[in-house]
Amino acid sequence: MLIPVTKEKAVLLALAISMLLSIFSMNTSAQTTNATPTPDHITLTWTQDPMTTQTVTWRTDLTVNSGMVEYAKQTGQGSFPGNARTVTETPSKFDTNTGTINIHSTTITGLEPGVTYVYRVGGGKNWSAVNTFTTEAAGTDAFKFLVFGDSQSGSSADPNYAPWQTNVQNAYKANPDAKFIVNIGDNVETGQNYIHWENWFAAAKGVIDHIPEMSVQGNHETFLPLGSGQSRKPIYWETQFKLPQNGAEGLLGQTYSYEYGNAHFIVLDSQEDEEAPVSGDILAAQKTWLENDLKNTTKTWKIVFFHKAPYYNKATRSNEAIKLAFCPIFDKYHVDLVFNGHDHSVSRTYPMYNDSPVNRISKGTVYYVAGRSGNKAYTDLSQKVWDAFFYDPQDQPNYINCMVNGNMLTLNATKADGTLIDSYVMDKNADTKTATPYYNNTRMVIYGNMLQQSTLPTDPQKVNDKWYVPARAFAQFFGGSASMSGSVLTVSLGGTTADIPVNGLQATVGGKSVKLPDKLLIQKSNTFISADDIKAVFGFSWKYDATTNMIFFTK
User: Fold this and answer.
1) How far is CA 243 from CA 179, 359, 519, in A?
2) Has domain 443-554 been given CATH number 3.30.457.10?
3) Which CATH number does the domain 139-427 belong to among 3.60.21.10, 3.20.20.150, 3.30.420.10, 3.30.830.10?
4) Is the pLDDT of residue 186 over 50?
């Protein structure tokens, strides 16, 4: 008997078959990786003390069932590997969407502080080239590290990592004394598509096999190759980067801390949207660990890395949940500096405390969005009211050169071709001062964008302890409208239309009745709507900041 199939069911069936065929194809293409018996993708990280240990990770194909690291002091390089010590390991199989490979990893212990070592990995007839690494020197309080924003290709279908290659190679060539590098997440475009990692590692060869890559994961590390909107835990990322396992419960490796010189470094996971289906509330899970970690360090500098920026530069994309979870803890324990990615902008805030700018670095935290180190640039970036510096890196990738020298920390944002973008010195001795903004007339700020006088002909008003803003100016910021017809104000914004009676407390929103906290305010033919009404009708949270005399709206 034939069963009738509707057009809609036929489309869904075709999509399901297509997805199954894609999955089958990806899981059976065992010969499509570039892995061979010769080790590659060699990556240095720290999982233990940088003064006395070094973790080394690499890959081979499945014909290699064991491996080792041979190492010796560089002073004995002339007789290497004859004088080498060895550390053996047993690889783990790693099933990628382009085939199965072996991941090898081991940690060398018992090293001497401040010593350069030569090493190679492999075994039998299959060895890597000889590389070097250098342990942290005891008592150091002067060192350099490099920070890279998103290095992704910009297209899932086109894994182009040539811009990342140019950037990272130029950065290391210009800073051969850098002790380690940090990628702030979105290392690749599609984190669960191995071809992107193939090209990313090939681009970083010659850098991450000489100095540690203390990686941070981004939202793209969670993406599956079957299309946008599909994500999971960053399995490919955490398999290939061996990192300290001292982080928040359930997020080991995705969150961690380490120390180098007189600085304490913390890595957090900001991918609450992508990981919630499998990991629950990851922001809440990190808060207790973060507080305990910060309260137990006595280092001069406290520096934090995570991907999504609480002080962002995109037009209308905020990260309020992340700000609420992490920033009060940064305030409590005075984190000096936070690096973020995600927005592909170069921006540096005023020192921030309690979500407001302050005028000295001793009073707040500087948030730095590190730009882009790869192929992808955005077209809707802008300087926000919290930014002391902003630059849109449309022309080429960039990196941040960070130099710690005792109580001084110098940050230089640099283009791939060496052009300086921004230079900023945080001097604890002088307690670096910054002039913070203040406006005599109250200004309206939406998603960090301050409305200019041309679009805000009338200032926000405070009446009977209630804040009111011009309804038309608020709607027009989003390309919407606000018009009066008789005794009803109609506001259209982002696909939502609200009819608000002048003297009523009940609005009609999309055909439904919504209770309003306040009535409209009419002054000299200008119609004002209260901040609380905007929240009730359109879902925007708001706050008034007395230190700047601004009223902020965001979602």
Assistant:
1) 16, 36, 56
2) yes
3) 3.60.21.10
4) yes
